[in-house]
Design a protein that fits this description.
4 copies of one chain form a homotetramer. Chain A has about 350 residues and is an alpha/beta fold. Chain A is built from 15 helices and 11 strands. In chain A, about 40% of the residues lie in helices and about 15% in strands. In chain A, strand 4, helix 7 and strand 5 form a beta-alpha-beta unit. In chain A, helix 8 crosses helix 12. The longest helix of chain A is centred in the last third of the chain and has 22 residues. Chains A, B, C, D: Homotetramer.
């Protein structure tokens, strides 16, 4: 019963097999092989427009390169306070962007409200040197709280960013999960709503190690080649990432895997909703959910072998919790089984 | 007939299969799984002492992190002029080390002579603030010229570095090739000769993507955890690197693969030695060789489908070349076949 | 009636004259002259212990170098949310420290409460790689709110920092103002209370351009020489800073100037206390005060030629303000005259 | 008899007095005062076109900011091997430019030949990611060898840079000395010959601390405001630099001072030319000269109190030197007296 993270799963068999198939033969290195090119083209098809794609090794790399590419000295980047870039990347975004600063914005359930974003940006008057200048906005889809921005919410944030002349980056570590939750298309969830740069994650959804930086304006791609290499993210046998993505996209596997993990998460949520000892902290929009659980139930779950993390509760949630309750995070993956769900719910 | 780079090969079947085997099941993320720990232990066995091991995604990352970990403001790092860190990493070492500077040292056949190193270090008087301060020495084994430092040469460089209080880093992108060429042990070629930090490469020798930073003093490892994460090189499903190394080390596969590519390189060298239109620029000590070839022979080779790169010749080599000759680089890999060698030599 | 900033004043005549006196003659450059050495010794006398002193050109440089010297990759630095390093230095601290991150802590009247600091540090568990690691605490004395930490408050913060193994930095841009307000000695306000590094400011208190970084543990000074030079803060004719400090310290001029500006600020505060249209937002502890003023009075003041800045009010202060009131900042300097005070108060 | 550096002189009385005059009164801070604006306008007059001017504290800062402003990831900057930015700034240019790399070019007497520059640039093929990309050229006028580029030489270098699409920066730490040596105008020596950015130095020529970054395309100035502030080079009482420049430019003082130091250097050179124990290593074009002197004469000079530095001789010069000779550097300043020259020459 592993609910600690979707990172604890391995890789889907089809993806691992793709690495076996691609292992034979010679191909030019550093992202120039036929396979690399073919998968890059697939990205353009999936997003319904010409995009520039850069394979990288980690989500941290994708996010940090994205922000580095759009910031200059004195740069301020706006994000949700709990965003991965702000709390879980050990200063990588700040390092890659040569000291750019993240400006955290608060909002319920992991989402940055458009008016809060506007207010935060408004605190930096144009040409006020000392405070630096707004340079980018980054949102996470699905969010760190397991919720998903609606298309309208994305458009509203993009409008605020655009008004201020700021590019909008989306951290899509769980892109597929949000996508199938919303039942929309990749294009609708991104550039059609004003997203400029996307960190497209495959690792959490069944790949071994497959992340891609997607630039919706390929005209801005030239510098990224050097930026990526300087950041040690240009892989010599880059086709090992391409091979994973090829299997990932084939016959819609990526959507199927996301549906599967969202589905187990939904059943988990439903069971928690019926439970006397636990309740959801807020509705989920992906494969991640947060529950307020009685401490004795938590003990029972762990005794039965369930693995999950306690999570720090923000003030608003804390106010709704009893003394003997704890906030926990549960993450399902493509590999989560019905037995695990049943086991967890019965232990609860 | 692919002799462009060992990066053009894919992965050895055993290594790709290891990724399939490891794909199932849950395991804790970010380098903490049993498999990660097991492979880390294997490194200690192979090096005959407790070492700290950090898996990373690229050789550039390993080198850059190594240098970043041993430099402070004003840091000068000494390397051969043609070292990969100096000419082929797009400023990644300088970036990771916050502006540290590489001080190139000349030497024949890709090797930095100990006295040239001592002279270069000597140009930085202690406490002369303006010029910065020596902070590290880095050597490449096998070198970018395909040669291998002898154990005595390594010891001599380490003595110079040690005298100046500088740590010695070894870029081992082709570690196994040099090792089997010298017929020595990993311990003898590194810490027993004074090497402090090693970039241990698996990718060029049959892995998909497997590089490790090895610290021979594990007491200095703590900061590296943060340094690696800040550089976006901590992989969530880190065991996908561990799984490659597990197969790589099993039953000495890594040494067998290196022997194979060194062997095809040797046969190539032998054939070139007999040729009327080509000669070796210097003896090889790995799977990489450099040949001076008549331009008409080069044309013939390429017409027959041989793939390789022209290489810039330094002044000393240039002086030995005729007008109608070109320096080329030939690299074999674990996947190079006898047919390819025969085909190349007959075309020559 | 200039109350915009103490930076708007020029230099005290004695300090400017000192530059004239020092202008003649030759002296060794880059901080090695007799005058430099002499003034460094004065710092040791003033602080009653051997200190290492580094002259720099701006307060931003002093603060940024201090933080850079005590942070490593993944470094988190704790400061008050309104601290100058956090809001007014255009990411210089983050840049100098290669991407270190400032963790803002809230507290009333510009002061960071010790328990809030402890809680903030506590959110970073040891060895949790993703979040980075606490590396330093920085406080401002006098604070950006014009208040001064008491000696006990400094000691309490130092105790929290020390418990966590973190060095304590003090931004003393208005060091002298806080010092004379508390009526204590430089030693008592710093190292005797646990401060490790000090940005000692002279510019705001009557110098042209004189800032010094003071290390209370001179054994840690060696790296700072290179750090300062790499940051372009080693002045060739460094004695032009030394000459200012020499005049600044002669016959206690620095304390006299601070008493003077604190005194005019106190009279201003007193007058505001008696006013019907204005009141202090909180008591002052330096030459800087914050007042809540009726908008019509603000207009009258500006019509009469008073120069000052509106200031953003935090939520706690805002809650006490009427709709037709504004928070303003008033700063006096050594050059502020009794006439200016009288003029301001009568216009109020 | 101080010939160690022009940095050993203090400040010209008129410049120190200007600081006394400017000390009184209030003025807006951070470069916005009337005096700042007035002096900026003077720069435009002197250069016969609208320029953007940024005052900074050190030559290292001016150079590093200039290079930082024109480099992006993977940036290669071409300079003479002995350029100050390459050997005497403790990695500040690399740090400010986030890891950009200096590519040293050899040339006699401190000058980079245009064809050598073209060859160096040519080693970086367009779109070859691994090696990074050319981004700027920087030259020093007068050079570190005390010579001055002719106007034609500058134009030739600018043509090479322009061909490659690279901006041309001039390090003018001894701008005035080269200018009066060539007998030309500031405009002719810079933008009319293709210089894009200039580090304009006043410190070595009689100021206390006055350096300016001059952008000949003011349209590119916006980012520099943030870059300068982030680098801790925005001075609060910026008018203390402006006041120095005001006196520096008044009635052509700066040219007079440069003529004076060039003149004493010329007399020194003449005397050395007549000497039996010394000879010039190459002709001088400023206030700096390099002489090959017999060791017994050097001893005699130092015994008589002459202060100067030995200098490392490059291979070409070394080949012309006897075993008992040493290369020395002699620098005169505005404050060098005829007695010092006479004393030196008689001791020789």
């Amino acid at each position: 019963m592993f609910f600690a993270s979707d990172n604890w799963a391995g890789a889907h068999p089809a993806i691992a097999e793709s690495l076996v198939e691609a292992a034979a033969g010679f191909a030019s290195a550093y992202g120039t092989s036929d396979l690399d090119k073919r998968v890059e083209k697939t990205f353009s098809e999936i997003f319904e427009r010409d995009v520039a794609v850069f394979f990288v090794g980690t989500g941290t790399a994708a996010n940090s390169l994205a922000l580095a590419s759009v910031t200059r000295p004195g740069g301020q980047v706006f994000c949700h306070r709990e965003a991965h870039v702000n709390v879980d990347e050990c200063n990588a975004p700040e390092f890659f962007a040569c000291g750019a600063k993240l400006q955290p914005v608060d909002g319920p359930a992991g989402k940055m409200p458009a008016d809060a974003l506007a207010a935060a940006i408004g605190r930096f008057p144009p040409d006020f040197i000392h405070g630096g200048q707004p340079m980018a906005v980054t949102i996470t889809q699905a969010t760190e709280a397991g919720t998903a921005y609606t298309l309208d919410e994305i458009a509203a944030l993009a409008a605020v960013a655009g008004e201020a002349g700021l590019p909008l980056h989306m951290d899509g570590a769980r892109f597929a999960n949000a996508l199938v939750h919303l039942g929309t298309t990749p294009a609708e969830m991104t550039w059609k709503r004003g997203v400029d740069i996307l960190s497209f994650g495959g690792t959490k959804n069944g790949c071994w190690c497959a992340e891609a930086l997607v630039l919706f304006d390929p005209g801005k791609a030239r510098q990224m080649h050097f930026l990526r290499k300087r950041s040690a993210q240009l892989f010599s046998k880059s086709r090992f990432i391409a091979a994973q993505f090829e299997a990932y996209f084939r016959d819609g596997l990526w959507l199927e895997l996301a549906r599967r993990s969202n589905g187990t998460a939904a059943r988990l949520a439903e069971g928690i909703g019926r439970s006397a000892t636990a309740r959801l902290a807020w509705p989920t929009g992906s494969n991640e959910l947060f529950a307020i659980v009685r401490n004795d139930a938590i003990k029972a779950l762990r005794d039965k072998g369930a693995v999950f993390y306690d999570w720090p509760a923000g003030p608003a949630v804390k106010a709704t919790m009893a003394e003997d309750e704890t906030l926990i995070r549960l993450v399902t993956s493509f590999a989560t089984t019905d037995e695990e769900i049943a086991g967890f719910l019965s232990a609860l």
